[in-house]
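S.,

Sequence below, as promised.
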Amino acid sequence: MRIAVLGGSFNPVHIGHLALADSVCSELGYDKVLFVPALNPPHKEMAFSGSVSAMDRLSMVRLACADDPRFSVEPCEIERAGISYTYDTVCFLREKYGDVLEDRLGLILGSDLHSGFRMWRRAQDLAKTCTLILARRPPVAGSGDFAREGWNAADGEFSADDEPLFKDALRLSNPELAVSSSQIRAAAARGSGFKYLVPGAVFKYIRDGGLYADR
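The prediction came back faster than expected:
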């Protein structure tokens, strides 16, 4: 089985995350995408909204993935507690899925993370042990949906072709959907519509629980 990993805050999970995972399976032939919600990203600017717990975020991801057998939820970072470092997660998943894993784990990186990847903890080891999957993402102000280590794109121009760690990376031609978790949180806080930016079950979870209302 070919397995790829999609980490992030998922605060909340939205259609952009699902579309990205679908592209990884459809375009690159992966059998499974593991959604891995972070507990505590290393960078303080990634602090989560106080109205939403880790278990809320985990529950929303489970609801979002329930209808697609290609998608699974991996709660290891929440269960492990502490700071969520991608290298630690990859080591855990390689051991957990070793019996069914046919190839190296794929690690999905949104384009907002490409320029800062070299600063991630043990980035060189990640590039050696995983197949890096470089996804496209339109710029969305104030968004950090796919952030893992807390490093966002640097100011100025950056080309993934110039990054030695991406020498063997796969390029993904995924749809660029201009939707972000921060937009959804803001819409929920002001009572604006966001129903079709998230799966139906996630919308109901947010609405029924009054999530993000106290932003």
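Residues 142-147, 150-155 have pLDDT under 50 and may be disordered.

Coffee later?
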